[in-house]
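Q: What would this chain look like folded?
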Amino acid sequence: MPRIQYFVAASLDGFIATPTDDLGWLLQFDGFEGGKESYESFMADVGCIVMGGETYSWLLEHEPDNWPYPDTPSYVFTHHEYTAPSGSDITFVRGDVTEFAADFERDAGGKNIWVVGGGNLAAQFAAAGLLDEIILSVIPVVLGSGKRLLPLEGPTAPLELVASRTMGRGIVELRYRLDGRTAASTT
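A: My prediction, written as structure tokens:
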């Protein structure tokens, strides 16, 4: 059965972007030891991608001629009107994540579903009891403010740490399993 996974990087103080969606703090770590291998191993098991409109907009702005997931069905939750880049398999949707869970699973073709971002969308999956796993790379930077990793009202039930490893440049990758009872409301 496919798992819904939130594979994400966050600052030491729990932010995935600055208040203005700047990722310079993260991009300075590109090419760290173990990062490429972790990403490629993760992507080998991904059959469907789900993201929020802000993440989609950021990708279009920063990768204008290069859709990074050409062979993977993707869903974008948005209230804006967008067009899909040439060669992409993107479906734009509005509504509750639970309305589309069967579509994600069908399109994943037995593989996993990656909630790319942002934190608000991942929190909706968690609140609905649909998020199975968080794979978090903790980046050794403190932002002080920004877009939260998982903006849920807490506390949640304890998450189960199933793996951890240290990678280059002081980055730690943590893999947590959620049990469905972790559900909390979003803020």
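The radius of gyration is 16 Å.
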